[in-house]
Give the backbone structure.
Amino acid sequence: MEYKDWLQSLKTGDDVAIETITGGYVLRKVSRLTKTQIVLDNSQKFYISSGQLVGGSHYRSTSIIPVTAEIRETIERSILIYNIKKSHLYYISTESLRQILYIIDSETRP
């Protein structure tokens, strides 16, 4: 499906993605539609004709995009990394730490 066709097919309750300035993604739901705009659950508005943010910057264009399996995986990966980074590793057993290190070493070696 072409991008413009996808924009035209959106309806209330559909999930959309917005790429963040850091290269990550945020998922939002379509809250309502007007004749010319798509309004999301956080009140952001995008043009139905282009998918561009209403009142957005010319230097950094923000648009909505379809949610794909790749985007969902990117979001899940970011959440996992965040949660692991904030974990208190001092409370994890030595054996579990060995297993974690083994996994990290086996996945990051060339």
